[in-house]
Amino acid sequence: MLGLLSITPVILFFGFRWWLQGNLVGGCCPVCGNEVTGLNNTQLQCNSCGEKLLIREKQIQRFSAEGTIDVEVTEVSYNSPEDS
To answer: What is the superkingdom listed in this entry's lineage (predicted)?
Structure first.
């Protein structure tokens, strides 16, 4: 019985390390590029820009409400006829 009590913390320690290696995800914030780390299938907030992030399937992505469409803005120059 004493042997079981003494080996249990060791088993728990290595079990936790094994679980952590499979669930800990590291990468860059998709908004600002800052390094972030979190657990798989959880939400977190970037420490640098404050953006809400979602870690799903070991990928870091922006957290957005259902139906939200992300767009990229492109600057277009325009010369009006009055400028000529």
So the answer is: Bacteria
